[in-house]
Write the C-alpha cells for this entry.
Amino acid sequence: MSVGVVTSAAGAVLHDIAVIAARRFEGIRITVYPVQVQGAEAPSQICAGIRYFNRVKNVDVIIVGRGGGSFEDLSAFNEESVARAVYGSQIPVVSAVGHETDYTLCDMAADMRAPTPSAAAELVVKEKSAVAESIVSCRRSLDSSLLALITGYETRVRSLLSRIKLYSSEARISQAADKIALTRRLMSGAVAAMIDRESLTVEKYRESLENLNPRAVLRRGYAMVFGGGGRLIASKEDAERDMEIEFADGRVAVSGKGL
C-alpha cells in the first residue's frame, strides 16, 4: 500500500503520520507532496498536490492535513478551490486538518474526516496482524467455496455419467434381454399351467372311460358268458351246451352236459 500526504514538510504532521504508519505496518510507502499550509500560496499548492497524485496515480489514498491553529491559520482549507480539488479527486482523500474541534470545507468535501493527522494515519494504515488475519480468513473462505464448487461439479459429473451409462447401447441391449427373459418366464409359466389344466381334464375323461369299460367290471370279480359265434349270454334261458366264460385274465371253455 502507498499513501500520499499533502502537507508541510517542516511541521510535526508528516513525522507523526510516518511514525504511526511504520508502527502499524512496517514497510508502508509514504510519498510527500510538500506544500504551504497557510498563507496566500497555500490553497493553490494544496490543489496542485492533489492534482499531482491524481495524475501520476502512484498512491492508493491521499491524506490532506496540517496541525492545529486558529481559524485564520486554517483558512486555506476553507477555500472553494481546495474543496473542489478534494471533491474531484479520483483517489480517496482523508482530511486531517487541525484538532478534533476544527471543521473546514476540506473536511466536508473529503471521502473521510480524521480528527487529527495521527488519527488519519491510523484510519488509513491497518495493523499488519489484522491484515494478515483478514487474508487468512479470506483464504479459508475461498478454500471452502472452491471445495463446495468442486464437490458440486463432481456430483453433477457422476450424475451425467450414470445417465450416459443408463442410456448407452449396452444398457439398452441388457434391458431388452431382461424383458425377453421375463416374457419367456411368463410364457413358460402360462404354458405349464395350461398343460396342467388339460392334463386334469384328460385324467377325468380317462377315469370316466375306465369306469365305462366292461373289463373294469371283470377285474372286480365278475365274468361274461359267450355262446357260439361270440354271442353274449345274459340270461339262463339263453344258455347253450358249449359256452365260454371270460374272466379278467382270460377265457375258459365250459360244456354243460346236463342242460
About this structure: The chain has eight helices and nine strands.
